[in-house]
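User: Can you write out an input/output pair for a complex, sequences first and structure second?

Assistant: Here is one pair. Inputs:
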Amino acid sequence: MSFRRLRAIFIKELHHITRDARSLAMALGMPVMMLLLYGYALSLDVDHVPTLVYDEDRTSDSRDLIRQFEGSRFFDVRGLVDGYQPIRRAIDRGEVLMAVVIPRDYSRNVGLGREAPVEIVVDGSDSNTASIAMGYAETVVRNYSLALRTESMNRRGGERISPPVDARLRVWYNSSLESKNYVVPGLIAVILQIIAALLTSLTIAREWEMGTMEQLLSTPLRPVEIVIGKTMAYFLVGVADSAIALVVGIFVFQVPFRGSFLVLAASMCVFLLGALFWGVFVSAVAKTQLAAFQMGVLSSFLPAFLLSGFVYSIETMPPVIQAITHIIPARYVVTIMKGVFLKGVGLEVLWGELGFLALYAAVIFVLATRKLNQKLA
Amino acid sequence: MWERIRVILRKELIQALREPRMRILLFVPPMVQLIVFGFAVNLDVDHARIGWMDMDRTPLSRDLRERFEGSGRFDVVALPRDENEVQQALDSGAAQAVVRVLPQFERDIQRGHPTEVQVLVDGTNSNTASLVSSYAGEVIAEFSSDAMDGQQNMRVLARSPTGALNAATPRVTARSRVWFNPDLYSRNYFVPGVVANIIMMVTLMLTALAIVREKEIGTMEQLMVTPVRPLELMLGKTLPFAIVGLADLTLISTAALLIFHVPFRGSVLLLFFCSVLFLMTSLGAGLFLSTISQTQQQAMMGNFFFSMPAFMLSGFAFPIRNMPVVVQYLTYLNPLRYFMEIVRGLFLKGVGIAVLWPQMVCLAVYGVAVMGLSAARFHKKLD
């Protein structure tokens, strides 16, 4: 390997990058746009669930229960209806997600001290929102029930009692339970993965398509030098992207940054190298830019988005898919990002992840070089 | 004119299907996406891993633990003994929450003093955290309610040994009924979304690249010297991909029904009709993209610029209701949003034109506008 040849191809590739100003602007602008848009927009928090109420009972007791729902910030009572038909219609149209139905004998049951069921109808299409909304509704009813019972007992028993056990919830790390804090660090990782794979996956395929690969072949360049030289050029773009993404995450979104900057920077660089080498590998396998793009997106965006634990928890996946996630670098970098950002843990916890990323980059580097060697031979 | 369109159409189809690699790429990635989404995307929380720190060690505290484990939603995976171990369990992610029962838990309950159970939740994943804390709250409230029954009965018994039966107190219970997706499977929500998404990804990019490739290689000039007119060229370039898109739609929907047993309650015909409406938009966008890009790389980057936001802001994975109001308005500009609603309505709710017509009208308006605009631009570029 000669440093001179390496430098030559590095500079050639830099020319390529800087010449196409529009592509460069997109490569640098995309992470910012994506972070801004998604960081604000992507939220799985559930509140103000649009709700209808169908009160068959129409007593002060049932109205009291309705007030509990109106008073909760999790529900947004959109009106009273009579009958299931309007509920059905509104849910079909997606205007409401939930309905509370208070049966006719509700107040009688309460008065007699019996069990008084209240029906909660939920649109289950979006299962996640549905189960969270259901949890909230059940909590509202339960708390109300507890209050009713306490009151009734106090009336009867003469002495005051209060509900004996209270759940005291305390949330660590992301105490406001804002999904932005959870989404943004993972999002940075996902975006980097996509950009990196996109950047390099096209470079070698383009040379094949344009026929310039033959020209490169007739030079004394060796495959190792081509891979490293091309990667280094795009590495610069990737580092710029990372820096921009971090600045946006920390200063615009104010995601708490609790860990060591050095650990984060090192992990991102290692991860970037792996992703860029992967792009080179893909473009060496695919002959055309279209095929390279398809394969690049399929093998980087999809796993990074779905199988990295970025939003979808890995532990709820079937065992086979869980096993697959172990070979996906984005999984490790997402763990590192979240660990460093939110938990403030360092290498003592994350060394395994960083080690894997390094190993991955090395393996893919060897693969890419060999693949290119084959093609050249 | 039809003759010439037919020729271009054939040329384009041959070009798209000639290479074995391309044949695979047209149909395999959609299938892979479907399978991965179907199996991997799951926001449900069952068997949350919790740490149990019992500082009381009495029958009552053990009873509480049994209730946690008996609820089927929690697995006790760690028994931290001090603050450090709690910290470590949460730091390493071994436990998603730690429940701490304070000393004198039993004594306080028996004496009628209010006491509390602490639940420390790892909030890193806010979604899981809110589900876990809601489940934990439920178990504890249930426990509390029963403990209160016990106290009340003791008091009444103390006063009149026969009076225990009179101690009935009202209890309001929630009976939840879930429509459309009674088992609350995430998959039923996501798989129809994937169908919508794949159609866009496939058609948008194929169209854009097919045209830009001709420009890049220089065969566009050759096409232009033939008697083919711009309109014919355009139709010939987009129709093959409309066919590929519809083929993908059929393939993926069938797979969704067979592999994932996703319900399909609406009309198949309506699904195809709406897909055609949507295809106008996505093919039109592809055409537009091809007029503003010189190289395939630019086209791909541009494609990403368009399809990523369309994907993220379609309500596919993240509910639109949760977005900031400004962004919510922005999503009205997103054709995929309407198509997503239609597809989900057809699959899960089984609604028809009566409910879906506003979305269909929007798609049609979009389709005509985008197609017209791009066609005009394409035309001008060629002349």
